[in-house]
Automatic annotation (TrEMBL):
<protein>
    <recommendedName>
        <fullName>DNA polymerase lambda</fullName>
    </recommendedName>
</protein>
<comment type="similarity">
    <text>Belongs to the DNA polymerase type-X family.</text>
</comment>
Length: 348
């Protein structure tokens, strides 16, 4: 049901999905690994249900779907029979509700939201008033100011329209640039939470995209396409940089503020970056899992062999390994023995 043009509400199991989504959100907003794991499990179940063409009518129906266990099947039956889920009521405490609202502010995670709650803040207005001595960062202030816009998803046509303004401006800086839109847009989704744009440049003539991002950002501000910066790259001239900001359609009255990310990568990492930033996140997780099963390691820079990690601090690499593939998505998937999948098929 996630395909463009297919109405989400056309899902035969939409009522079940909505309740499970609420349960997912509750678990996600809570601290602790067990809640995180549960949220992950529910997100997988929701995906299964979305792609299931038939109405589920019994515990057996539910359990026939690979990945749905007895506990979840029982919950699904409760929703079918009573139209409700008791679990939702007692999980829905004030702190969960309030911190969920706070986490809708750009860049605010669990710990910040809980800290504000413990400082006595209960509403967005409390935060704006600095209640309990709460101080917002510059990005959080922007996140609060455009709270509704940022939490709204845009129609893919709007993402496409904004991108079609940006691409020629980028190419006017250097016609050899590779400029592509990734994320949910590339997967063909009917609506997008943000616009994810990659910029790189082939190096056959010895040149790179060095310096392009800062010039592009300036031009986009001048053209009234970019409206606010949320996170600037440490060094925009680095060949690998990330920018996060807000943009809108200029010259359109009442145009909403939309989230936009720019990512620059060295040409040799283009495929790995495309793969990672096209997602979706569950697809990425299964690709990383596949790589690990084969003794490899996959990230947004490439597929590596022989990576050795510190036994205590897994984030530290004691051996960086050697790269097996990184320039194209095809090379990476081939080594992983995963049949080629078009972006719109990359939902697991
Ligand atoms: N990504 C990931 N893990 C994360 C965040 C991102 O694997 N924790 C990857 C997969 C995403 C891609 O980056 O598809 C882009 O991230 P977005 O947050 O922009 O997600 P999408 O574009 O997929 O969805 P949305 O329409 O909500 O922006
Ligand atoms: Mg996105
Ligand atoms: Mn993004």
């Amino acid at each position: 049901c996630d395909l463009p043009g297919v109405d989400r509400n056309g899902c035969p199991n939409q009522d079940i999905i909505e309740k499970l989504q609420a349960l997912h959100d509750l678990h996600k907003a809570k601290p602790g690994d067990e809640d995180k794991w549960r949220a992950f499990t529910y997100s997988k179940v929701i995906r299964l249900l979305r792609n299931h063409p038939k109405r589920i009518r019994s515990i057996q129906d539910a359990q026939k779907l690979k990945g749905i266990g007895l506990k979840t099947a029982v919950k699904i039956m409760e929703i079918i029979e009573t139209g409700d889920l008791r679990r939702l009521k007692y999980e829905n405490t004030e702190s969960v509700q309030v911190t969920r609202v706070f986490q809708g502010i750009y860049g605010v995670g669990q710990s910040t939201a809980l800290k504000w709650y413990s400082n006595g803040c209960r509403t967005l207005q409390d935060l704006a008033n600095g209640k309990g001595g709460v101080k917002l960062s510059a990005a959080q202030k922007i996140g609060l100011k455009y709270y509704d816009d940022i939490n709204d998803r845009m129609p893919r046509e709007e993402a496409g329209a904004i991108f079609s303004l940006i691409k020629p401006i980028a190419l006017s800086i250097d016609p050899d640039l590779f400029v592509e839109i990734m994320g949910s847009y590339r997967r063909g989704k009917a609506d997008c939470g943000d616009i994810d744009i990659m910029i790189t440049r082939p190096t056959r003539d010895g040149k790179t995209h060095e310096g392009v991002l800062s010039r592009l950002l300036q031009k986009l501000h001048e053209a009234d396409i970019l409206t606010e910066d949320l996170a600037l790259p440490e060094d925009p001239d680095d060949l690998e940089a990330i920018y996060r900001g807000l943009c809108h359609l200029p010259d359109k009255k009442g145009a909403k503020q939309r989230r936009i990310d720019f990512l620059t990568v060295p040409w040799k990492n283009k495929g790995a970056a495309l793969l990672y930033y096209t997602g979706d996140d569950i697809f990425n997780r299964s690709m990383r899992w596949k790589a690990n099963q084969m003794g490899y390691s996959l990230n947004q820079r490439g597929l590596y062999e022989g990576v050795v990690r510190d036994t205590h601090q897994r984030s530290i690499k004691t051996n960086a390994g050697t790269v097996l593939a990184s320039e194209t998505e095809q090379e990476i998937l081939k080594i992983l023995e995963v049949p080629w999948q078009e972006p719109h098929e990359r939902v697991r």
